[in-house]
Design a protein that fits this description.
The complex is a heterodimer of chains A (170) and B (437). With 170 residues, chain A is an alpha+beta fold. Chain A has a single domain, classed as Roll (Nuclear Transport Factor 2, Chain: A), CATH 3.10.450.50. Chain A is built from three helices and six strands; from the N terminus they run H-H-E-E-H-E-E-E-E. Residues 1-6 of chain A have low confidence and may be disordered. Chain B is α+β, with helices and mostly antiparallel strands and 437 residues long. In chain B, a hairpin with a 2-residue loop joins strand 21 and strand 22. In chain B, helix 10 crosses helix 11. Classes of the chains: A alpha+beta (170), B alpha+beta (437). The interface between A and B is medium-sized, with 33 and 37 residues. The structure holds FE2/S2 (inorganic) cluster (FES) and fe (ii) ion. Residues 218, 224-225, 228-229, 370, 374 of chain B line the site of fe (ii) ion (FE2).
Chain lengths: 170, 437
């Protein structure tokens, strides 16, 4: 499930298939919930073995390297709980955000899961306008209860830093 | 004064010593301009960062010959390098020909640095080893060529692997500078079975929209947690021990020379429970680590080290031992600071280290549950300073209950502003010094 560097850079040959419409719709939905600070609804998208990862470098091994975010399901729950207090000062009030998800390509797929890499541009407004961008890799799982999010790795263009406070859902 | 035909008024050279530090730092209060004034910011760079000891790197980051890092001392870009001869040097990151920045990566390994502009080449001990098309230079140049190595911080020393440099050729030794703060480094090293730590997990670089002093003062502020971090305690987990000062034996301490800390050790010893500082995990979760630590210290001292945990100590001016994290700051502008944070890794203890990494991500850096909010509060502090009334910031909390002992000025109320008073006493003496032309 850990998505490695080849998906962020080149090394993946040729044109790749676009995701099925239901998968694309699910990813747009995930983006919209994050943009609109709908924290609890966003949290519900995640499966139990979730990993929400924002590395400092695409090749980093999280066993030995520090990441900006490396949340398992429990940590995701905590992150959302903190945001929901209304007292997470760095998101009080929440950033106004809109992100565009594009260039969607399926990196891998089997009966159960599909891994989709996309580019994103996120415009954040909080006191001033800021832009975030990067490569995002989603692992989406088909379950009897519908599509669930098993993994989301965000390779920020600006990961080399310095980075601004990143208390919203990237 | 020379007499000339121009009718321009004679320009008096600026008199930096007209700066009266008592006009901005007084007993128990500081003037808002210390955080906003570009002149004071420049003066800080010229004094604190050019005359005193500044933390630059950790030995574990440049463990092998040729390893180098690019860092800054105040506004000066430097290369911290493990030279061929085994010595750690701090070289100014500038080609001695026409000033091109020589090293452009965050880190690397090289025996020599070759300037991309005209190809001058320097050994990693800083000496100039090659000048292309040297026949184009005359004999005057050949006479000074040997002096054209990279400039070097005249003093570099380390303690417990933490490397400090001073751009001043003379001054007190590092040991004198650290004084009682060396114990805070020892306290972290006591938690390692090898007596060493490694800072090799990568540095989060977090941009704070606040003056650098706001960032460092806050690190030893025992007053804010109940308020700034209420969301963590309400939503995620209770504080490790109460943040209500009357309920705990937690002290704040002005160690002297600008160093200060929040010291939980008395409280932890009273609880006599291991790993309270580390999510209260039972020692059975880390059997190899505990066994290795007992091998080093014996069971009693190992128990004590695990009870007391790491330090929460600010080492003047730019280093913060943040328990199992290390932070250092770079001042960028009066209202802009970069905070660098990494996790403390213990050699050979992978299980412990993975846990430490995850804890570090949870608390620290731009997305951390704690520091993101500290950054926000710092930004709002800076914004509030735009209002000029009141002119002063109050640091008097606990002034009547400060007690002097052999460890410094101690206050048994962890919310006392004793650390901040110590910080500004040092600040006044360093920034208030005469600046040499
Ligand atoms: S500036 Fe470096 S060789 Fe000319
Ligand atoms: Fe804090």
């Amino acid at each position: 499930m850990t998505v490695t560097a080849d998906v962020t850079q080149a090394a993946v040959p040729g044109p790749l298939p676009v995701p099925d419409p239901d998968v694309a719709a699910f990813l747009y939905y995930e983006a919209r919930l994050a943009d609109e600070a709908r924290y609890s609804e966003w949290e519900q998208l995640w499966d139990d073995d979730a990993l929400y990862w924002v590395p400092m470098h695409p090749e980093d091994d999280p066993r030995t390297r520090l990441s900006y975010i490396y949340d398992n399901r429990n940590r995701i729950k905590s992150r959302v709980a903190q945001l929901n207090t209304g007292n997470r000062h760095a998101q009080t009030p929440p950033s106004v955000m809109r992100r565009v998800l594009g260039n969607m390509e399926v990196l891998a797929a089997d009966e159960e899961t599909v891994t989709v890499a996309s580019n994103f541009v996120l415009v954040e407004y909080r006191h001033e306008q800021r832009t975030w961008a990067g490569r995002v890799v989603h692992t989406v799982r088909r379950t009897p209860a519908g599509l669930r999010l098993a993994g989301k790795t965000v390779h920020l263009v600006s990961a080399g830093g310095p980075v601004n406070t990143l208390a919203f859902l990237i | 004064m020379t007499t000339t035909e121009t009718d321009r008024p004679a320009v008096e050279p600026p008199t930096p010593d007209a700066f009266d530090v008592a006009s901005v730092v007084q007993d128990h209060r500081v003037h808002g301009s210390v955080y906003t004034s570009p002149e004071i910011f420049q003066r800080e760079l010229d004094t604190i960062f050019r005359t005193g000891w500044v933390y630059v790197a950790h030995e574990s980051e440049i463990a092998e010959s040729g390893d180098y890092l690019t860092r800054r001392i105040g506004s000066e870009p430097v290369v911290v390098v493990h030279s061929k001869d085994g010595q750690i040097r701090v070289l100014l990151n500038r080609c001695s020909h026409r000033a091109n920045r020589l090293c452009n990566a965050d880190a690397g390994n090289a025996n020599s640095f070759r300037c991309p502009y005209h190809g001058w080449t320097f050994s990693n001990d800083g000496s100039l080893t090659a000048v292309p098309m040297r026949d184009g230079y005359g004999t005057e140049f050949q006479k000074v060529r040997s002096q054209l190595g990279m400039a070097e911080a005249p003093r570099v020393d380390s303690y417990g692997g933490f490397v400090f440099a001073s751009l001043a050729p003379e001054g007190i030794s590092l040991a004198e500078h650290l004084g009682g703060a060396a114990k805070a480094i020892d306290r972290v090293l006591d938690l390692s079975p090898t007596g060493k730590i490694e800072l090799r997990a990568g540095w989060m670089k977090h941009l704070h929209h606040a003056n650098w002093k706001m960032v460092v003062e806050n690190n030893v502020d025992g007053y804010h947690a109940l308020f700034t971090h209420a969301s963590v305690y309400d939503a995620i987990r209770p504080a490790k021990v109460s943040h209500i000062p009357a309920k705990v034996d937690v002290v704040v301490r002005d160690i002297g020379s600008g160093h200060s800390e929040i010291d939980y050790s008395a409280e932890y010893r009273k609880l006599d429970e291991e790993f309270v500082w580390y999510g209260r995990i039972p020692r059975a979760k880390l059997p190899d680590y505990v066994a290795a630590l007992e091998d080093r210290h014996g069971p009693e001292k190992a128990h004590d080290a695990l009870v007391v945990g790491p330090s929460h100590t600010l080492i003047w001016p730019n280093l913060f031992l943040a328990e199992m994290n290390v932070m250092y700051v770079e001042p960028i502008a009066p209202d802009e600071t970069v905070a660098y944070t990494t996790a403390v890794l213990v050699p050979g203890q992978d299980k412990l280290n993975q846990r430490t990494l995850r804890r570090s991500e949870g608390a620290m850096g731009p997305a951390g549950f704690l520091i993101a909010d500290d950054g926000e509060i710092g930004m709002r502090n800076q914004a509030g300073l735009a209002a000029h009334d009141p002119e002063w910031l109050e640091l008097s909390r606990g002034v009547e209950t400060d007690v002097i002992d052999e460890t410094g000025v101690v206050n048994s109320d962890k919310s006392a502003e004793t650390p901040q008073r110590g910080f500004y006493r040092q600040w006044a003496s360093v920034v208030g010094q005469e600046i040499r032309a």
